[in-house]
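Extended Data, panel c. Modelled sequence:
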Amino acid sequence: MPTTTGRLGVGIYGIGWCASQHIVAFQKNPQAEVTWLCGRDEARVRASLTKYELHLPDARTTTRFEDLLAAPDVDIVVITTPNHLHAAEAIAAAGAGKHIVLEKPTGLDEHELVGIRDAVRRAGVRTIVSFELRYNPLLRFARWMRASGHLGNIRFARAQYLSRVTDWYAGWDWVRTRESGRSHLLAAGCHAVDALRWCAGREATEVSAFHTHFTEGYEWPTSIVVNMMLEGGALGHVTSSTDFMMPYTFQIELMGDRATLRQDLLQWQDTPLDVGELSAANPFADVKLEASTDPGGRPAIRIRCAMPDSADVSHHPFQAEIDELVTCVLDGRETSISVFDAQKTMEICLAADRSAELGGRPVALPLIAD
């Protein structure tokens, strides 16, 4: 039920770093307004609003999630709480008939994933999962290069999520635990898994992984390498780690039988890509292409755009995510990152963690029958 202003009402549950950017995005969407804020402590909610310079004089504040679910002026619930709470809260929100923005990870095991899936199916609500890097210009362009055939048939895809998260992070107390953080893939590297799926356009059929533990303070392994067999005989690889002494790095590579995209560089072996023709066909105004060379002096095309090169959520494209959900709610159609689609990403993460616990033994996908 829209609010008295005719806009969709939004309730935010968990007022912290990520939630601040969801709020900003909803404030910029003319068809939505934040009507409720929910946190464990009202003083901390107010402190967070001050910290992130958010002005919400008309929003009501509560410490009870049930109040958001019962509120007639809440159409959309945003869940940005610690990881182990996501599934139960998403199931409850769906049961209350609320549309959902769900931070990753969606669920921490198959039981939770099935619970979310079934609750959302029963309710018929719209959902979007915050794999917001799909809206980054580089990833959108990489997906288009593959889908348009410029790379040819994909033979290998790789994504890397390399970070250095310790006690500077506001969620350190819970993310470091097995109960809530669970693994680096579930806590962070699922972004890389999702990027590989989305850009390569091929689902994983089997995974084999190894993990290790270097960074003190975590109750779970802090680095994992994941090898995948993809549909059509292609191979995939994900590295997810918080152990490296380097700035945050997010990388994507798609290697086809015509050309290869490696982060911001396009290269080829036999038939050159024409930078003029490619620029004319490129559908993204925020992506520019220019003739260049690689470090060895060989011809290449350089991709110029905003890169996925920051762990700061204020740098992430939440606006496009929120705008898509609002449009889909109003149009009565599914989003591109619904819980049904995101489940496939989460299953790869679960399978990889299971394989690593088994010393690298392959695990077949999918884990969950439809």
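Residues 339-357 form the longest helix (19 residues). This feature is highlighted in the accompanying rendering.
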